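Hi Y.,

Following your request, here is the sequence exactly as I used it, all 128 residues.
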Amino acid sequence: MAKLTDRHIELLGRPVFAHVATVMPDGTPQSTPVWIDTDGEAVLFNTARGRTKARNIERQPVVAISLVNDENPYEMLQLRGRAELIDEGADAHIDRMAKKYLGQDSYPFRQPGEQRVIVRVTPEAIVG
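Below is the corresponding structure, written out as tokens. Let me know if you'd prefer a different format.
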């Protein structure tokens, strides 16, 4: 396991967008921009069950994440790791992310019947 530095944690705490790459059933990469977060040890993002990235992670729990500091585009963070899907606390987490990224108290893009999930990525390799 690779360890996040204080600088990584500070950068992940900002409202910067990250790109998450997962593996499709045919082995090709799939990349999605996401809101990003950290618990100090792992990188977190939020999605809904049934979406492509959630299905890909359920089948093959490896991801790559990259982000660039929007205040200094020459500062970046790239990591690869193993992902797990966590249901508990996912609705509260997406609301916290809406506050961080939109300044709104609750996530305004919820779809009827969607089941939110936190994706927790334990870093195995970190660059940046």
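The domain at 6-127 is CATH 2.30.110.10 (Pnp Oxidase; Chain A).

Thanks again,
Q.
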